[in-house]
Amino acid sequence: MNNPESLFLPVSDGSDAAAMVEHAIACIDAFTDAFNRRDLEGTDAYLHFPHVILSGEKLVVWERPGQLRASFFEELEATTGWSRTIYHHKKVVLVSPRKIHLLVRYSRNRADDSIITMHDNLWVVTEDAGRWGIKERSY
């Protein structure tokens, strides 16, 4: 990058904020539908790569799709009793051109809908080359 200071300049391109939020939330919902179907390729289809995950203080970067083991969902179910993930809210905290930051609250649930764990995470959904995808997640 020739001008690092340009990272900190506000940018406006006249984008429709409401439409961008709608696309970002639709992307998260589609990702979650694929996740609940236990579809690894389907979940990857709603991510942008490289994909960044900040888990605690650990930074993980997935350079390409296919980073989870084929047995991921079976192991998740066997070790935790997970059956599905339910979103309780998706709160928009920042809208900028082609990028939406959301605070998402979701639970991992058993088949009887009892909650295993509740999560509050920051997710960043971006539009790149005409496609919306989840670019970053902070756990």
List its traits:
139 residues, alpha+beta, Nuclear Transport Factor 2, Chain: A, 6 strands
Describe this structure in words.
It is a single chain. With 139 residues, the chain is α+β, with helices and mostly antiparallel strands. It has a single domain, classed as Nuclear Transport Factor 2, Chain: A. Helices cover 24% and strands 43% of the residues. A six-stranded mixed β-sheet has the order 2-1-6-5-4-3, with helices on one face. Strand 3 and strand 4 form a beta hairpin. The longest helix has 20 residues.
Question: Brief description of this entry?
Answer:
The protein is α+β, with helices and mostly antiparallel strands and 139 residues long.
Summarize the helices and strands and which ones pair or pack.
Elements: H1 17-36, H2 40-44, E1 47-55, E2 58-62, H3 72-80, E3 84-96, E4 99-109, E5 115-128, E6 131-138
Parallel strand pairs: 1-6
Antiparallel strand pairs: 1-2, 3-4, 4-5, 5-6
Main beta-sheet annotation: 6 strands, mixed
What's the CATH class label?
Alpha Beta
CATH third-tier fold name: Nuclear Transport Factor 2, Chain: A
Spans of at least 5 consecutive residues with low confidence: none
